[in-house]
Amino acid sequence: MSAERIVVGLSGGVDSAVSALLLKRAGYEVVGLFMKNWEDDDDDEYCSTRVDLVDCASVADVIGIDLEVVNFAAEYRERVFAGFLAEYSAGRTPNPDILCNAEIKFKAFLEHALAMGARRIATGHYAGVRETAAGFELLRAADRTKDQSYFLHRLNQAQLARVLFPLAELKKTEVRRIAEEAGLPVHAKKDSTGICFIGERPFREFLNRYLPKQPGPMRTPEGRRVGEHIGLAFYTIGQRKGIGVGGMKGGTEDAWYVAAKDLAKNELLVVQGHDHPLLHRHELGAADLSWVSATAPAVAGAYSAKTRYRQADTPCRVAFIGTQAMRLEFDDPQWAITPGQSAVLYAGEVCLGGGVIQ
User: Cα angle vertex 184, ends 178, 185, to 5°?
Assistant: First the structure.
């Protein structure tokens, strides 16, 4: 009987490379697939596509697998980037990596892999999948510092049924050790940070290409004008750097933070001090809900939630408003809750799903 074919999404990094290696060692017929999702400015200094593709080819060569390249740039622009710009225009701060996972990496890529004769795909994400009598559960990774279930919370049952996460039980240090011992050329490659299609470039400069600047007043909660912003789309709640307000005469020398946006007046509300009350909230509303199990969890339950990726989740209570909105209440105030980001709900190690903060 021939081995099952699995298509692994290779990104050029160490995580996807080790995922492919582990599956090959486990006896699967592994094919690597490199996804090209962005081509607006491939020739500039920030786009690492070419370097990543060369690294993928080297990895495939060492492991001994075939490598295919597929261009999803049109799908990406239509399904992810258009929504990304619309959200910023509306004054919110979206998380395109969540949309990219749901629409590209686990939809367009999965469809392509099935057409290649595979039954399942694999990626280098740090997360787990568990099959139960009721269906598939999305789990946190063993390496809590690298867990990416937050970014995967919009995956559904059909997608999870066809996905393998080979790194679920591994710590990042082990992944690098495995890569080094196997002679993979990317074993020490730095992890990519930032939004998938933007790379390491200055974010404001990138956004300025697609969104017009609409300057307006920057005010304190008391209504005092302390400066001018370049356009509400270019700021996010909790932002400290790049606001352009220095210490005020007679005021405290605490740093300034973005606390809110008033779209109707085109005003940016700024406050001084990380612990200013306007930066802390005990509740949030979320809409556009998506549940891994396809049904919303019961209202009563021991839940916790993350309101941003790099954050420990916090115990919360949940109330539903119809089928597509919920309210989360926290005992401990949450800092800089940001409209457009995702609130993701957990029951212990199981990621239940979530919604977009309003």
Answer: 135
What's the rounded Cα separation, in Å, for the pair 192 and 323?
Answer: 36
Mean pLDDT of 338-354: 98
21 phi and psi angles, rounded to 5 deg: -60, -45
CB-side neighbour CA atoms (13 Å) of 188? 1
Structure tokens given for 340: 């457009």
Sign of CA dihedral 244, 309, 335, 88: positive
Could you tell me the residue ranges of all domains in the chain? Answer: 5-181, 212-274, 280-357
Mean pLDDT of 309-338: 94
Residues 6+ apart with CB under 8 A from 48: 12, 192, 199
Count of C-beta atoms within a 10 Å radius of residue 27: 9
Q: Which CATH number fits domain 212-274: 2.30.30.280, 3.20.20.150, 2.40.50.140, 3.90.1150.10?
A: 2.30.30.280
Segment 246-259, tens digit of pLDDT: 655 555 579 999 99
- State the catalytic residue, choosing from 47, 196, 316, 351: 196
In whole angstroms, give the CA distance from residue 20 to residue 22. 6
Q: Which of 251, 246, 255, 249 is nearest to 275 (CA)?
A: 255
Is the per-residue pLDDT at 241 higher than 60?
Answer: yes
> Considering the domain 280-357 in this protein, what is its CATH number?
2.40.30.10
Strand pairing of 225-229 and 216-219? antiparallel
Rounded Cα distance between 181 and 342, Å, is: 38
Active site residue 316: no
- Clarify whether 56 is annotated catalytic: no
Q: In terms of Cα–Cα distance, which of 124, 117, 70, 135 is closest to 101?
A: 124
Say which CATH superfamily domain 5-181 falls into.
HUPs (3.40.50.620)
* 301 token code pair: 């339950």
Cβ(101)–Cβ(80) under 8 Å?
A: no
